[in-house]
């Protein structure tokens, strides 16, 4: 598992985290994955945008997709750290 990937284990044993191929999710039990955001290129603005699919809010923008993906991860990790459901 790479450093920087937060995994939350709830009292009922449910494990929650942002998807990473570095995490052996299948070893933790039955996997249920759902998309909470979309990262797409905005042709009008000529930049990448990460949108929270639950709220429709753009949570990150930038010229480099990798930077937007990193900002997206940081956004959701902060929510998880704060105890919010993602």
Sheet-strand content, in percent, reads 25-35%
Mean pLDDT: 88
Q: How widely separated are the two ends?
A: 20 Å
Q: Report the count of strand segments.
A: 5
- Tell me about the biggest sheet? 3 strands, antiparallel
Low-confidence parts lasting 5 or more residues at pLDDT below 50? none
Q: What class do helices, strands and sheet pairing give?
A: alpha+beta
Helix content: 10-25%
Based on CA inertia axes, which overall geometry fits? Answer: elongated
Order of helices and strands: EEHEEEH
Give me the number of helical elements.
2
Rg result: 14 Å
What count of domains describes the coordinates? 1
The largest sheet has its strands arranged as 3-4-5
Secondary structure layout plus pairing:
Blueprint: E1 7-9, E2 15-17, H1 25-28, E3 37-42, E4 47-52, E5 58-62, H2 65-81
Antiparallel strand pairs: 1-2, 3-4, 4-5
Commentary on this structure:
The protein is α+β, with helices and mostly antiparallel strands and 86 residues long. The protein has one domain. 24% of the residues lie in helices and 27% in strands. It is built from 2 helices and 5 strands, in the order ββαβββα. It has a 3-stranded antiparallel β-sheet with strand order 3-4-5. A two-stranded antiparallel sheet has the order 1-2. A hairpin with a 5-residue loop joins β1 (7-9) and β2 (15-17). The longest helix has 17 residues, at 65-81. The chain starts with 6 loop residues before the first strand and ends in a 5-residue tail after the last helix. 8% of the residues are buried. The model has no long low-confidence stretch (mean pLDDT 88).
